[in-house]
């Protein structure tokens, strides 16, 4: 376990060093179209994947890429880790995240989010926030964007009971496009609330798209069942691998 601690420490130092360097490189892109800034973000994602593999012995596998539809789309993804927030955009031409407003207040990073057209929501504004978010999401998708939503609103540890909100179903209905569910097991290898990084095979799986126009109740049932079933399968496989590599899966990874 000491070796994992040491590797995690080295990884985090390099991770934030690369982040700072690329943030400096990205400064001129504020005067360029958003695509330029997203390109720098993709460089960061690729560098991070390299560091994960070389330093932490975390191999990342992407499955079902052939299922990703072209054009406007709503992506509904499981959220277990910071990992998916910077990796998922690389699979889409014009990714747009729905995120909490507080992130917009972070110096430089917040300006990056504004520049790239991310949609902020004030969680304390109730119905007004949902209506505004739905309107902006519809406009983004109609102009060719791919909307990325974490339906539980925040990171959930592997094994924690699902907590799907209903607002994303309203967005899906309003946008009138296909929905791409995404399952993953990132929380086993890049857990929340700790700097530790555990070895193994992190899997992101793109599932079968759902057609537009489903009734809200049917959509909610189908998308949650698809994501939770696939995520459960990936988490179980990941834990079995961790038991072989380090003796047991981290106990806190399954906590709520």
UniProtKB/TrEMBL annotation:
Keyword tRNA-binding attached: no
Species annotation: Bradyrhizobium campsiandrae
Pathway participation: Lipid metabolism
Boundaries of every Phospholipid/glycerol acyltransferase domain copy: 73-187
UniProt-recorded name of the protein: 1-acyl-sn-glycerol-3-phosphate acyltransferase
PANTHER family: 1-ACYL-SN-GLYCEROL-3-PHOSPHATE ACYLTRANSFERASE
CDD domains reported for this sequence: LPLAT_AGPAT-like (cd07989)
Superkingdom of the organism of origin: Bacteria
């Amino acid at each position: 376990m000491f070796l994992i601690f040491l590797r995690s420490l080295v990884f985090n130092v390099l991770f934030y060093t690369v982040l700072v360097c690329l943030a400096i490189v990205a400064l001129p892109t504020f005067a360029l179209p958003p695509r330029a800034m997203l390109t720098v973000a993709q460089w960061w994602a690729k560098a991070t994947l390299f560091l994960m593999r070389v330093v932490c012995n975390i191999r990342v596998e992407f499955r079902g890429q052939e299922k990703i539809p072209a054009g406007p789309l709503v992506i509904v993804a499981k959220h277990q880790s910071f990992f998916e927030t910077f990796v998922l955009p690389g699979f889409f031409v014009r990714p747009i995240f729905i995120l909490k407003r507080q992130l917009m207040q972070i110096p430089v990073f917040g300006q990056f989010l504004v520049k790239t057209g991310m949609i902020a929501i004030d969680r304390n504004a109730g119905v007004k926030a949902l209506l505004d978010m739905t309107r902006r999401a519809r406009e983004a998708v109609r102009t060719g964007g791919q909307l990325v939503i974490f339906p539980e609103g925040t990171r959930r540890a592997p094994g924690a009971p699902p907590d799907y909100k209903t607002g994303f179903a309203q967005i899906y209905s309003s946008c009138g496009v296909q929905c791409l569910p995404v399952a993953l097991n990132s929380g086993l290898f890049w857990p929340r609330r700790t700097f530790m990084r555990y070895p193994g095979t992190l899997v992101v799986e793109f599932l079968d798209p759902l057609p537009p126009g489903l009734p809200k109740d049917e959509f909610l049932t189908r998308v949650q069942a698809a994501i939770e079933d696939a995520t459960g399968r990936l988490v179980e496989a990941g834990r079995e691998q961790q038991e072989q590599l380090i003796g047991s899966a981290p106990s806190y990874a399954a906590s709520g």
